[in-house]
Design brief:
Elements lengths: L1 E6 L6 H12 L5 E6 L9 H9 L18 E2 L6 E4 L8 E6 L2 E2 H10 L5 E8 L2 E9 L8 H24 L24 H16 L9 E8 L15 E3 L6 E11 L2 E10 L6 E8 L2 E2 L4 E4 L6 E8 L2 E8 L4 E9 L3 E10 L3 E9 L2 E8 L9 E7 L7 E2 L6 E2 L11 E3 L2 E8 L7 E11 L2 E11 L4 E10 L2 E8 L5 E2 L2
Parallel strand pairs: 1-2, 1-4, 2-3, 4-5
Antiparallel strand pairs: 5-6, 5-7, 7-8, 9-10, 9-30, 10-31, 11-12, 12-13, 13-14, 13-15, 16-17, 17-18, 18-19, 20-21, 21-22, 22-23, 22-24, 25-26, 26-27, 27-28, 29-30
Length: about 500
């Protein structure tokens, strides 16, 4: 398979080189070349101003790259198809866009409007131009255009790699289809770039010196006795939740439940403000709820969160998030609940958040929110599978099985409603963990994944977000983002 990449030599950047590498390295039968095109599109000059004020990493996606450093040579002649990386004109092949414009212009337009960028993949061929994929991308720092654009470019690289992998497996430009989201409304006109830059800069200066500073919002864990039937979809508004009291020196988040010897326990991410590094803590639950305050049960040299606990092969395991050291680690309870020992590294050298396991049809599956180079961990769901819980684990596909900032990132254990599998998810449109929802898994196997959104709930009133839900052992637990610590939470 010979692929030609369209490049503007005067505007060649690192993300172009990364896209070429990802596309070609995924198959031994692939080779490439590049063709020079000239484009008049220029990025906003505010990006240069931002680099002066905020700085920019030397290995960022917009850093200049000499075309001589590309892994392919300039060449003409017949090819199987082309990939447009410059906003040129491709007759047969693939191109990227965003919100009805070229990739960079559309992304900046969406960021200025406060909307998540919708990155689209177009397939060009004899049948004309058709949309082959649409991904709703997370922007973690919308106040800085360059950082938001970097998140978009990171996912654009993923999108091209997934698309070419499907073409290599037998798809054609006429039928290529990536897992996609429905297109939201086109973003309304937002602030002008210079006004956006000025407002962000003034806001950060004011925040540094305490001007207009308010009490920061923080995560709070809340619990209630189980409502309804375990075979029904959770109703978050069925009854109020009581909050887990903290000492004001930390916050609690990511609540999980486990029971042992007839006793239920609540596990949480325990984040002391003094250390700025999360540990896993646990507290027993009685008839009246938590019996005391959570006490640390697992601490490592990196930040820990999302203490996903499950049983397998006669043992109780924990899968805490250890994305800070780019691993997914399995820990075994040597003495439940307060002594855990390493059991295996399931996935190494990959940044995965909120890893969530379940067993189905004789195999293990693992969902995770993977952060690609330059991209966000809010928007991409990856899927892995193994015959045994200790591995070896292999990725399903070469990239995310879903990219949607409104529904991709995991938010708790997989729920089983009879034969149905329900996946809690985070909705981070407008901010990390802004909402929570539930999707029914229609397909999950070694060949792919599909799901349908059933319900979602976003914060309102004093609640700015909610992003984890679990139930079991007679309890339901959530976490919410609030500016205070209310005695109870109503959703």
């Amino acid at each position: 398979m010979h692929i030609r990449f369209l490049i503007d030599p005067a505007r060649c950047c690192l993300w172009h080189g990364e896209a070429i590498r990802r596309v070609l390295d995924a198959g031994d039968d692939r080779h490439g070349s590049w063709r020079a095109v000239t484009t008049r599109r220029r990025l906003s000059p505010v990006l240069a101003l931002e680099r002066l004020v905020y700085g920019a990493p030397a290995d960022g996606p917009l850093a200049r790259l000499d075309v001589a450093a590309l892994e392919v040579e300039a060449a003409d002649g017949p090819v199987d198809f082309e990939i447009d990386l410059a906003g040129g004109d491709v007759a047969t092949g693939l191109s990227l866009g965003c919100c009805g414009a070229d990739l960079a212009t559309g992304a900046i337009r969406a960021i200025l409007a406060g909307a998540p960028p919708l990155v689209t993949l177009s397939a060009h061929g004899d049948g004309g131009v058709r949309t082959a994929g649409a991904w709703l991308v997370g922007v973690e720092d919308p106040g800085v255009l360059g950082r938001g654009l970097a998140n978009v470019l990171g996912r654009a690289v993923d999108m091209l790699a997934v698309a070419v992998d499907r073409l290599a497996a037998g798809a054609t430009l006429a039928d290529l289809a990536l897992p996609s989201v429905a297109a939201p409304a086109t973003p309304a006109a937002g602030r002008r770039p210079l006004a956006h830059f000025a407002a962000t800069l003034l806001g950060r200066i004011g925040g540094r010196f305490g001007v207009g500073r308010h009490a920061p919002a923080g995560w709070t864990v809340a619990w209630r006795h189980a409502t309804g039937d375990d075979t029904a979809l959770p109703r978050l508004d069925a009854a109020p939740f009581a909050t887990l009291v903290d000492d004001g020196q930390r916050f609690y988040a990511d609540p999980f439940l486990w029971g042992q010897a007839g006793k239920a326990f609540l596990f949480v991410e325990d984040y002391p403000y003094l250390t700025g590094k999360g540990v896993i803590s646990a507290v027993p639950l009685g008839a009246d709820g938590p019996e005391g305050r959570p006490e640390p049960v697992l601490e490592t040299d990196c930040h820990l969160s999302y203490p996903h606990i499950f049983a397998a092969d006669g043992h109780v395991y924990m899968l805490p998030e250890t994305s800070g050291r780019r691993t997914v680690e399995l820990w075994r309870a040597e003495r439940f609940p307060d002594r855990w020992v390493p059991a295996a590294v399931l996935i190494d050298d990959v940044d995965i958040g909120d890893a969530t396991l379940f067993h189905r049809d004789g195999r293990w599956f693992l969902f995770g929110a993977e952060r690609p180079r330059w991209g966000s961990s809010w928007d991409g769901l990856t899927l892995w599978t193994a015959a045994a819980v200790t591995g070896p684990w292999r990725r399903v596909g070469i990239g995310p099985v879903k990219v949607d900032v409104a529904s991709a990132r995991p938010a708790g254990c997989i729920l089983r409603l009879g034969d149905r599998l329900i996946r809690p998810f985070q909705d981070s449109v407008g901010g990390y963990g802004a909402g929570l929802g539930f999707a029914e898994i229609d397909r999950c196997d070694g060949g792919g994944f599909a799901e349908r959104i059933l319900a979602r709930r976003r914060g309102s009133g004093a609640i700015d977000g909610l992003h984890t839900y679990n139930r079991g052992f007679g309890f339901e637990v959530i976490d919410v983002l609030t500016a205070d610590r209310p005695a109870e939470v109503r959703l």
